[in-house]
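Sample A.
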Amino acid sequence: MKASCAKRFRSAASPRLLLASPALLALVIAEPTLAANCSELSGAQIPASAIALPTSGARVTAATLNPGGGSAPQTFGPHCDLSVEIAPVDPSAPSIKMRIVLPEQWNSKAMMYGGGGYNGTVPNVAGNVPAGPIDQPTPLGRGYAVFASDSGHVANPVHPGDFAWNEEALANYGHDALKKTRDTAMYLIEQRYGQPPVRSYFAGGSTGGREALAVVQQWPKDFQGAIVLYPAYNAAALDLQFGRITRALAAPGAYPSLEKRAALLEAAMQACDGLDGVRDRVISHQAACNAQFDPATAKLNGRPLRCRDGADTGSSCLSDAQINALKVFDTPIRFSQPLASGERGYPGFNTWGTDLGRPGEGLQLVVNRLGLNTLQPDYPMPVHGTGFAEGAPYHSGFWDEWVRYFVTRNPAFNSLTLDPTDLGPWQARVDALSLRQDVNQTDLSAFVANGGKILMAHGTSDQLVSTRATAEYYRRVQQDMGVGQTRRFMRYYEIPGYAHAASTVFNAAWDSLTALENWVERGVTPKRQVVTDTVAVPGRTRPLCEYPGWPKYKRRGDVNDASSFVCVKSHIGLN
């Protein structure tokens, strides 16, 4: 059946559907008539008029009908897998490459995934939402049409920021590719099924979390719900904080080795682990730890963490130079003048109790790379292998790329010479970038009017995006929308021990999609949400506490069971 025929059928049938029983109506919605088979979509052209932002149209470059697969409970059925290219207006700009999977048994819903870092690759649309559980089906397995894009460029593995030379590519990375990808997906979904989705959701973490906030702020009628994890929403301000941290770590003797960072983490564990009522190798009362821990006076196994006389005398202590650099990590940056986006600074990180890297293997190597890595920042920035900043801290590599390709557009520029607190001649350029990258709008009335809901979560041990920044955004929304109204459409949870996307302390898995579906589609507000550790103590659970709550042990019950904890609120360190 062609799309036009399917539309006529739906129009003629709609009065009968209105009178149908709920069970029959659900059956009709769950199993729509396919308007075009998979092979018919090969080579399909998407007109530029179908995409709200300027493009030269789009084209399906490959269409493959894949059989079902996966392992229970994460199985999926047959689906049409489309590769698509969205053509730019500027012929010198790269195209947007996207992928969409269209299940034969469609649930009449769509899911868009966000990217990460500088993007440049298409996320796995057959995979799970960020921090998704392994005991529940993925969106594709639930019957969603799932799509995502590379945001408008193919990543250079050595210099992933070099796409910013091109203005259209930069605009696509900022926000524009999100709308272009979504509109293209809607066109193809209707071609395949003869109808648009009845619900659309967005899920992303880090840059993808920024993108999730971007779509609900800028195109509030496109999505009815968003899963927002560790969002880098004020990206330009974060980049400037990266620069401040990088310059501190680049000072003589300031860079701590993996062994020294392991000593710092252990000292924080010994001082702060019991603040939540139990010593379980997870610091749950992070605000209290931030307030009372000081590496200059802390003890490790009963001995001072600070090296004797502040000199660098061993691998199990910190010198004064290293303590000073780490305190920069812990404290906010303040700008000499506000950015054009309105940001006046960026908070510090939960440095005390965060795994910034330590000796280990497997997943620990990922945590190390996302932390302070293995080499001190320098000029030129140390880069090993095929990935950027595999030697220098991730923050430093990200800052270096941003300064050279986004700000100065001079690949030979020494990023260590740019003072992020006083930008001088680069102020205007950073202001312009802040308007393109930051998504800090807090009036979400239009999204709420469209029935939109947001589930947002962030690990307190995140080493790349500060939970203090996410909490600050949440409080801004509460201030502008009202506390009561905010709670009607938004939840924010902090996850103790969880780092940036991966952790060997508490690697969180959360069935956020089911919670979002229940809230949007059934009006069931999120009650007691539980997060599961999949690495350090596989299977242990903790309650997800609404900010500013944290999980406190009841002093009875299984320490690995969420039911043994109660969420309590603390206002320590909220300012």
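Sample B, a different protein:
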Amino acid sequence: MHIATATTTRRWWRDAVIYQVYVRSFLDSTGDGVGDLAGVRAGLPYLKKLGVDGIWLSPFYPSPHHDHGYDVADYCDVDPLFGDLREFDLLVADAHRLGVKVVIDIVPNHCSSQHRWFHAALADRPGGPARSRFHFADGRGPEGELPPNNWRAMFGGPAWSRVTEPDGTPGQWYLHLFTPDQPDLNWRDPAVGGEFTDVLRFWLDRGVDGFRIDVAAGLFKHPELPDSPDPEADERARDSVNPLAWNQPEVHQVWRDWRAVCDEYAARDGVDRLLVGEVSVPTAREHAEYVRADELHQAFFFDLLSAEWDVDAFRKAISEALTDIAGTGSTVTWVLNNHDQVRTVTRYAGESTTVGPDRARAAALLMLALPGAAYVYQGEELGLPEVVDLPDEVLTDPIFRRTGSRSRIRDGCRVPLPWSGHASPFGFTAADSTARPWLPQPEWFAEHATERALADTRSFWHLYRDGLQLRRNLPQLGEGDLRWLETPPQVLAFVRGDGLVCAVNFGLDPVPAPVAGTPLLASRDCPPGVLPGSTAAWWISDLPIHSANSPKGNTP
């Protein structure tokens, strides 16, 4: 067995750029219109050429797919829709031969209503051991006809559903903070934690390099399940806002236990196994609590993703992250998009669609310049806009199914990728297949097809590739301090400890560049001494880094 050195592999995650693969929309190898693990294997050379360090796979487990795999029916297998365990093993082996890490999604807050545990709970009696693995409770009202509390589900509607008992009578209620198809697990029952330790070991033994943890601020609820003063907060925000349901202090012990398991495997061969959490909490300071030295290695920092295209908003988010999160000894994990969000080209467009691509390119360079790690959602490297006009009859998002509202639905960023050609399926599935892609691709996807992006040196793809190559050549990707530079009001600029200067012009008008000379890389044509509007650029400079007002980055 190859024993890796600590300096090269124990800390690989600190500055890694991970590419999020939404499996069902990446590449279809079977011609059924749905992407699969063999399709991911086929796409690995493309991702290696792009220059990412690893991939994060969306859930591929057996599931009824009421929430596209985030309703897991079996945590230790592969849904036949995506392949089988042998195909998964081949994917891991191929990725490792190319030097690409493999991170898989794990969903510990809830499971599918088709999971064997939930079937057992329905068959059990009130108060029985099978029900204790979930949140079953008696209803309120004379006949128990009212939910146990007033909480609402994030995806719409009440957070409780009533079951029919085995004898046919109306019975208890169970909690589901997303949909009724996704009952929340009760982590106060030791059996739940024991089961997930076994799940971790199952996949670690198959060679995975880490886990992306869904709803990592979840798991525990207030033990008394009281009414909320704002029961519609989660439903209104489409986020984990209810303080009685999320971010309970007990959850931190789970991450200490999981970290111990990962550290055990790391001790065997000197290669860290990554835990990266989807942590949605109100402040950077609370976020930092999840990445303390004995908990998660990383947690997605969503403040850039949620920020408007505004220089002050970006500066505030970056400063708070570098002060609070990096102070724990972790590195900040930057993200601009994922499978739940409107694509950046569309999100940054504002009232004018013409500026969206320029702003998205600039934001990408900014993210790649920041100390720490970064995650890139598939299709962002192609400059894909959101598909906003999908007809109602093809929408699959449970938010739409439960509310009838198209507001903040997620199908538009999940349309299968275009690879080649001028008409659907754009190489996503075999041209001679009679199956259509599971979500329809618009005609204008042809402008963003991978083969066209690779051939055009001015494309989004080449910008990402060039940025990733330069990143690798810089000595302090995950570490080091940065100092803000004096700039015009609409410009954000900083210098890092390795001499990299990054500047972003959030305005529309050109301004003087903070560094003389031609930049190493720019998101748009950037003449020497000028920084055009909606543009980011990198230079190497001997500007001093140290300043009393410098936000602190990480230290080795």
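Observation for Sample B: Residues 1-8, 547-556 have pLDDT under 50 and may be disordered.
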